[in-house]
Amino acid sequence: MKTKCYYLIVLVLLFGLPIFAQRDTISLNKNWQFKIDKLGEGNGKQWYSQNWIDARIVNVPHTWNIEKENEMHYGWGWYQKKLFVPTKWKSKQLILQFGAINHTSAIYINGKKVKENIGDGFNKFYINLDGMLKFNAENTITVACNNDFGKMKVPYANSFDWPNDGGLIREVALLVSDRPAMAFAHITPKLDVATNQGDVKIRIGLQETNANKNLKFKIQIKEENQVTHNVVLQTILKPVWENGEAVLTFQLPKVNPWHFDFPNLYRADISLLNGSKATDKISSTFGFREIKFVGTKLYLNNEPIKVMGVEWTAGSNPKFGFAETKEEIIRHGKLMKDVNCIFSRVHFQQDDAFYDFCDRNGIIIQEEVPLWGPETPSDASIEKIAHSQLETMISNHYNHPSIFAWGAGNELRGRDANMKKMIEGLIAKTRKLDSSRSVCYVSNTLNDQYFNNPKFTPDAGSLGDYIMMNEYGGSWWDVPVGKIGQYMDSIHMSYPDKPFFISEFGLCEPNFKGGDQRRLEDLIYHMALYESKPYVEGGIYFDLTDYRTHYGGGTGKFKQRVHGIYDMYGNPKLSMKVLREQSSPVEVHSLNNLKKGKLTLSIFGSIGLPQHIVKGYKVYLSDRTDNYASTKAYELPTIKPGEKINFEVDDLYNGKGIITVVRPTGYIASQKSFNPNEVFETFK
Is the pTM of the predicted complex or chain greater than 0.70? Predict the structure, then answer.
């Protein structure tokens, strides 16, 4: 008894005393002065050292390219903000955080340049403000940014097909903590799928390279995005030091795995202890899942799966452009889930809010460095920028379980020797930075040459862990529709040991006539083709919305590609519901009056794209598409791919009605009308 009391006292002393870790995140989004610089005179006139009297006030995120008078300006724009720094912060660690500035920027503190960010418009970056500030005084932050189509940037020049909105396109904040402070905490969870044991490794970098090596870390792990919110670990650990970084390891005996239908997360609260004082704190969510390839097949938590989804091109809404709010980002995430998206890719780095949404709602993502287009050179300057972007991207988003792979580029010259060498270097760098994930290059030149060609040269798409093929037969490709399957077979035979994915397919108006009806026909044909090929492990429809681009149809900020199943504002087209049904893991085939007062549903588990075990789904019978949630919910049994079940529900509408199948995450998996009075195509 005395021993138990002793340990109880120790635990109280260890965790009961107030250990206040100081990290305040202070928003700097409001009240920036802004000046457009159409003459490019700001640098010559030293705007960075002046107090402005002719500026207007804006809030960030901000881009000038959605403003009528500035929508076609590609050049310099300037921002300035006053910041009072109190004396009490003199001993603090102060870090200035920019969510992203597109695409090149110079940051000045009190008229002195402290940072240049060349050619990287989408990564979050930080500035350590040691020795740069005046205390008990007002300080001036000035940002000069440039979105011209210059060649010292990635993406290169005008090679890319998305908007080129300049400005402080994401949020700005000041991070305030005691010293010593952490720079990052990279969490590598490992799931034992046989026992559901979780092994965790946390690698922590410090702002000070000469920090006290006697530091310790308080760790609390709590369930997140789960039914329960239990604290599953609370401990203090002394790290092992490797290359100036602190390494912590521990085990959790039983965890709930992350899955796109059950996106279970954990939150790590990491406090840095200098003696008995907590000087800094980082909180991050993470998840336990095993995504791997066995031969050419994709597995999630030891279950063979096939995946299907859609890509969203950010900046599509003319009201926001690249200056999207968190709410706007989440809204588009919900549009993705509304069409059964569990698999996607992004051509360029997104705001943290996007990956947070994917973590919590079940989408696996391939995040890419925005190298795009055959115009992109393989020279040393572009390679340097790309490597820098890659390193920052991986560091920023390392902890997101939704990110299952990194991408080294898209639609470059995949058979050019110098370009292949550059891509190979990026892939090698990726594997060195993060060995826990896959990596690939997305190719549109896989169809240029095949294994049976005497001069066959492997495409750069073969350098990664799997094949990602952009397929536009019958549209962008000069390939007749009837030959697409043959082309795909030849590519698969050329790289038989590589898992095979369709990374893009779809139809763009007005380049190809026929409107949304042709889009429907193209979608249905291609999905049937892919599902007939047993080697196809996944597909991504392009695009979620019609998207803004610096070239295309329309004028100014309304220049666009009409590629989407929603319009630029997120309003659905008829193709939206077709893609949802095509991408559903279940198929509802019929309603039968086999028993008085009952309807029997025939439901199949999909054996196409996607393909996975269906568990925890619910089915509803209603008289309209928009009121199913107010009706009785029926729990579906577990359904395996290819399995058929007959499922009874109460017959409320004389053999007619609308059947809605809903995922555990609350999104519609399938909705079919058997009621001739219901106009199913009407969006309510």
Answer: yes
